Amino acid sequence: MFLFYGFSGSIDFQNMLDNLKQNKLQIFIAVIVILCFALIRSFETKLFYDPFLNYFKDDFKDLPYPKFNGLKLFFGLFFRYFLNSALSLLLIYTLFQNQDIFKFSLIVYSFFIVLLLVAFFVILEYFPNANWLLFYVRRFIIQPILVLLFIPGFYYQLQSSKK
């Protein structure tokens, strides 16, 4: 058995390899989910109606909001959030295989879609100079940011509950 001694003790590489072999399906699903995130990002202009894609690529600080169809924008943002959320929930369930974590995540994702879409359209309608605020609210809608917060948080929670 080969051990690597680092800053925080030793790492048992044989044990790590055994764990990888046992969890092939979970690793495969996680890789597929990450590739799906990349595909959504790659084809965002073809999949979703979002005139703010080009708007936020420019120096938008002093520009007025672009013209948009509110209903199409709502459904485009909702569809993108739904796809990212479904993939995020699949990734969370694959990694942790815990019903309570999955249910909690589902509730949080459901709460945030309502909150973020309402905030997005309120900013659009009533705050024409809140470009940066709109930028960040939109970013939470269109990118899977919550999963980046949840995975280490749930991992830490599970590790600390084992002690």
From TrEMBL:
Transmembrane annotation, as ranges: 25-43, 73-96, 108-128, 140-158
Keywords of this entry: Membrane, Transmembrane, Transmembrane helix
Coiled coil: none
Presence of keyword Metal-binding: no
InterPro entries: ExosoTase_F-assoc_memb
Protein name per UniProt: Exosortase F-associated protein
Organism: Flavobacterium phragmitis
